[in-house]
Amino acid sequence: MSSEYLNIATTDAVRAIRAQMSCDEMWASTEGTGGTDALTAREVSFIGERDSFYLATVSETGWPYVQHRGGPPGFLKVIDANTLAFADYLGNRQYISAGNVSRNDRAALIIVDYPRRRRLKLYVRIETHPVDESPELAARVIDAGYRGRPAMVQTLHVVAYDWNCPQHITPRYTESEIARMSQPLREQLAALEKENRELKAIISKGGTEPPTDAV
Fold first, then answer.
1. pTM above the 0.70 mark?
2. Distance (Å, whole) CA 14 – CA 134
């Protein structure tokens, strides 16, 4: 686990529970001393292939709000080793996440690769930018051809991240992934169906299939 991620997650209340459960010493040496985690090529590649993530923010009243965000693969853009961004399109116009981060910019993300059972957790600070006030940034994150009207751009400054345990992640597949995986089987089935039609045509004419060594 990332020491900085654990450093943020560990509070006095967390330490108290660990003490009650007799596991405080096993984590004492893993806490960090501050700073930020820079994304490596592994995280950049992983994020660039995903088509969804879960975003958690906290309201002024202290209630958490978890939202599922989705789009074309790679819609969450890696701007640099410490920055992510995505275009926020018009939806139901509740703006709960946007409202929360306007008062408390801290947020958490969970990004999952279900087929390969991989999960990345991040702590971030979020900035909200109107599209017309940040045209260069908007141009980098708005996916051409995607149906939807962009309302704003969300910039996520990565503070810490960690790769989570794959246990209990059930493999799930999108329609495009299933189509790609089943393509060889569909091709084989098409070839067998063609051969079956040809054999039926020969039989219906009262003939037999010529031997393969016929001249």
1. yes
2. 40
- Residue 120 identity (one-letter amino acid): L
Phi, psi (deg, nearest 5) at residue 54: -110, 135
The amino acid present at 60, given as its one-letter code, is E
Enumerate residues 6+ apart whose C-beta is below 8 A from 190. Answer: none
In terms of C-beta density within 10 A (0-12 exposed, 13-18 middle, 19 or more buried), how is residue 118 classed? middle
Show the beta-strand stretches assigned E in the chain.
52-58, 64-70, 77-80, 83-89, 106-113, 118-130, 150-163
The string of pLDDT tens digits covering residues 182-209 is 999 999 999 999 999 989 988 988 766 5
- Is the pLDDT at 148 greater than 80? The verdict is no
Distance CA 41, CA 74 (A): 15
CA atoms within 13 A on the CB side of 114: 10
How many residues belong to the chain?
A: 215
Return the higher-pLDDT residue of 207 and 211: 207
